[in-house]
Amino acid sequence: MSLRHILSRLKRVDRNQYRPIIICGTGRSGTSIFTKLINLHPNIYAFRWESQIFSGFPNLCEIATRSFNPNDIANFKHRILTHLFKRTVRPGAPNSYEAGLFEIIEKPNLLFFLEQMESEIVKATSRTKKLQALRNFSNNLFLAEMQRNGAKRWCEKTPRNLLYANEINEILGECQFIHIIRDGRDVISSILSNKFWPVSLKGISKEFNAKNAAHYWKKLIKIGIKNKENFENTVWLDVKLENLANNPAATWSTILQFLDLPWNDAVLDIHSNTLTRKQKGVLEWGECAHLGRWQNQLSFDDVAVIETIAGPELSILGYL
């Protein structure tokens, strides 16, 4: 889409009539499948990849918390124009694929909005106006594609958003968070099977074992629990992956009431071709979400270690 068309679309959007939706989690908790499902609602446009603009390295939140340092802005511009614009996921693997912002914006247009943001920050005479520059950039990335899809709200999913909820809320103002929660033992089982840390955390050993993974999940879920305590219930919603699977209609009813959006049956379409490369109708929720995988994949000793370390949090969330 040309820059002229994008700017034309942006002029027609009433930015006061929507609230951005931010999805977060511990990683391996179901944020990806949830994003694909929520995108099926006609009023929501959910960018299917992790944009990482709020919680990557570097990111908009760090720009805001580090006094809008010019070096941070320059590093962010470089990162978003290279890695975040187009990257190969699982390079060299048979199932590798390309992801990034290239799907929704051309690089010259992205550069235009970055330079516009930088110019607005330089000219700003207050922190409030500088935050507005970051907010404008965030909206400019997604609003045109949102409108092109006939939606009324845009949605961004990056698990690490969990770490920056306060900063994201300050930048975006009237946004809402959906925190996807999954049995920590399933999360840990997935991490150990894939040998992949979804979120980089300081103070957690990178060796893949039950002890380190339990500390990883415990640290992140405690942040999520704290966020829920700090935000109003109109801003933050916890959603359990297990509830989406076992009681989807009631769970989606709660989600859509939280978002102040009308009911739409599309969100129940777990068999949609947008959700899986397998044939439509083959995949059931239990398979898709790998619910209860820990019971077959973790040893008795591993489970004991996990429940010793993360038992309080598992209990708070109703998993023990």
Helix content: 40-55%
Outline the low-pLDDT stretches: 276-283
Count every helix, treating DSSP H or I runs of 4 or more residues as helices: 14
Average predicted local confidence, pLDDT: 90
Strand order of the largest sheet: 2-5-1-6-7
Tell me about the biggest sheet?
Answer: 5 strands, parallel
Beta-strand content bin? 5-15%
Instruction: Please provide the count of β strands.
Output: 7
Coarse morphology:
globular
- Separation of the first and last Cα atoms: 51 Å
Give the SSE order as H and E letters: HEHEHHEEHHEHEHHEHHHHH
Structural class: alpha/beta
Taking Cα atoms only, what radius of gyration do you get, to the nearest Å?
A: 20 Å
Features:
two-stranded antiparallel sheet, 320 residues, 9% strand, five-stranded parallel β-sheet, alpha/beta, 14 helices, 50% helix
Would you mind describing this structure in some detail?
With 320 residues, the protein is of the alpha/beta class. Helices cover 50% and strands 9% of the residues. The strands form 2 sheets. A 5-stranded parallel β-sheet has the order 2-5-1-6-7, sandwiched between helices. It has a two-stranded antiparallel sheet with strand order 3-4. Helix 1 packs across helix 6, helix 8 packs across helix 9 and helix 9 runs parallel beside helix 14. The chain is globular and about 60 Å long. It starts with a helix and ends with a helix. About 2% of the residues have low confidence.
